[in-house]
Amino acid sequence: MTHSRYDLSASETEPEPDGLDMPALARLVFGHAAFQYLHAACELGLIRLLSRHGALGKDAIGTRLGLGERACDILLLGCASLGIVVREGDRYRLAGLVAALVEAGDWDGIENTVAFEGHIAYEGQADFTASLRANSNVGLRRIPGTGRNLYHRLSENPRLEAVFFRYMRSWSEMANHHLVSHVTELAPTRLLDCGGGDAVNAIALATASPDLTVTILEIPQTARIAERRIVEAGLEERIHVHAGDMHAAEFPGGFDVVLFAHQLVIWTMEENTELLRKAFRALRPGGHVVIFNSMSADRGDGPVVAALDSVYFAVLPEEGGMIYRWQQYDTCLTAAGFGAARRLSGVDTPRPDGRGQALTRPDRSVARARIRSVVHTRTGG
Ligand SMILES: C[S@@+](CC[C@H](N)C(=O)[O-])C[C@H]1O[C@@H](n2cnc3c(N)ncnc32)[C@H](O)[C@@H]1O
């Protein structure tokens, strides 16, 4: 009798020439469970506990987290085997990367991202196959409410809204120093931030450039969040919020820069082209459009975070959207009247999506950046 090669519980198999061996296949089959260990480690406070105490034994961990013995065994089995924690003797400590992220103050952003994945993205992803079949965001049915897309439903779900904007702020802050440095080089005095969220980028840009005024175009439900943040930052003289629908009306005009941050991953390429046409008309001659979000390789085979992030855009926010290829943006830009674009990239910090590049052109130019992946972000959002 011959042994089957197809054993998903095998810890080692012969290497395969193209890289996908049985342990790698098992990680795909059970990938959802791996995420749940990370999610539970965050929500139950295991990461915080070990960051405070260095290393603890199983009983101390169970007592401090309020877990029964079996539950604690399961949590530690998963976290240790996945490398989130390391077992040394009879004690458990954080993996070096996790400890370094906590030490650097970067772990909150990871936890905010994990919470978004766990409470929002995960829900809709059960409808991934159905969404591909329908070529539409079938997963939206799992978010309670009547709003026409995810953004309109957030205000109907205050807990999800808080999870979303904590994540979106963290996600944007992980990479917006690239945005600030590229935009500052363009020396704008008037910038339109389309779908500016809670004003995270507008505040960073206005803080870096004292002569800059920013107009944020946002749906009314989110505009109120942005207004609160702007007041907290003391920037209400220089950042104004225009409540409206970017698809419905012409943009206000006379800007040096029109920014789409983590925005042109939500819509179809036809909608993106229409938005870029409006941006073109809203720019003064010589102005620039900046597209800042994750982008996938022109070959269509990576990076892996672009692929993973595309599941969220396929199932939840709106009918269109994905982490598009650079070339697809080039096509939209040309159709909207822009000339040659400049690709810029920036990838230097650990974060859950995949970040980095941009574009510009001499008449009205384009800069865009894609998000790089931590071990996930999406632009995100
Ligand atoms: C992925 S978030 C990005 C937020 C922000 N630009 C950032 O980078 O953090 C997308 C934002 O677009 C806004 N949005 C969605 N549809 C919109 C529309 N039709 N008009 C204006 N804003 C819209 C959402 O409310 C949300 O804040």
UniProtKB/TrEMBL annotation:
The answer to whether keyword Amino-acid biosynthesis applies is no
Q: Which InterPro entries match?
A: COMT-like, COMT_C, COMT_dimerisation, SAM-dependent_MTases_sf, WH-like_DNA-bd_sf, WH_DNA-bd_sf
Residue ranges constituting the O-methyltransferase dimerisation domain according to the UniProt record:
27-97
Q: Which residues form the O-methyltransferase C-terminal domain?
A: 147-338
The source's domain of life comes to Bacteria
Could you tell me the keywords of this UniProt record?
Answer: Methyltransferase, Plasmid, S-adenosyl-L-methionine, Transferase
Q: List the Gene3D superfamilies.
A: 1.20.58.1390, Vaccinia Virus protein VP39, Winged helix-like DNA-binding domain superfamily/Winged helix DNA-binding domain
Single GO biological process annotation from the record: methylation
> What are the GO MF terms of this UniProt record?
O-methyltransferase activity; protein dimerization activity
The record's section on PANTHER family has: O-METHYLTRANSFERASE
The protein's name in its UniProt record:
SAM-dependent methyltransferase
Which species does the entry assign this protein to? Streptomyces clavuligerus
